[in-house]
Amino acid sequence: MPLFNKKFESKPIPARVNRCNIGFPIVNEDIEDFRNISLSLGNKKLRFADGIWMHSTHKADVDDMLRLNKKFRALEEENNMCNLKIEVMLDLLAEHATELNDLKPKEK
């Protein structure tokens, strides 16, 4: 009787077959159908766009709002970059001014 005899052998696990939607047709929904979500509450109409709900009456209003938000973000980034450049230039100016003051001969 060998010491290392296999007393238990596991059976191979069969591959899974598509058990979901058995007997049901395959759903062919496009993700684009869910990009334009609108909600009507009484006389108010809301559209979900770019992660927020916006009050609008037309799809063009939402598109204009998204375009303006993107433009606003781009202008904010440009403004921040300009402010950073101004700060760097002021630091350089201050450094050069102190160097010039140190190089001037001191008069008594």
From TrEMBL:
Q: Which CDD domains match?
A: Cby_like (cd07429)
Name this polypeptide is given: Protein chibby homolog 1
Its domain of life reads: Eukaryota
The organism of origin for this protein? Drosophila hydei
Kindly give the InterPro entries that the UniProt entry links to this protein: Chibby_fam
